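Notes from hallway chat w/ T.B., transcribed later so I don't forget. T.B. wanted the structure written out for a chain they're using in a teaching module, and asked if we could keep both sequence and structure tokens in one place. Agreed to drop them here.
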Amino acid sequence: MEYFNAFLCGGILCAIGQVLLDKTKLTPARILTGYVVAGVLLSAVGLYQPIADWGGAGATVPLTGFGHALAKGVSKAVAEQGWLGVLTGGLTAAAGGITAAVTAGVLAALLFKPGAKR
């Protein structure tokens, strides 16, 4: 059932993004940024954690999950370090994901020859 919930949750998030692409004039970059902000806002009001508990990877892997991770990291760091945590908490919480993305980008650049499509 966990796999079904993850599939359903991730599918709903993707469907919302597709509807936004098809029915609005929003660019993909604005939709992606909106997803991160939505994850932060939903975390701030306490709604994203129940979604993440139910949807598992379907909620934590998409960009809304990245926003949720940033918000959790900031919250934890502020509780431990005070206002300095506002600056350090998000980066500390998301360091693994950021490192993986940068490493994958470097490996792709080294392994493949970039060029214009013909």
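Follow-up for T.B.: The CA atoms of residues 70 and 91 lie 7 Å apart. Might be a good example for the class.
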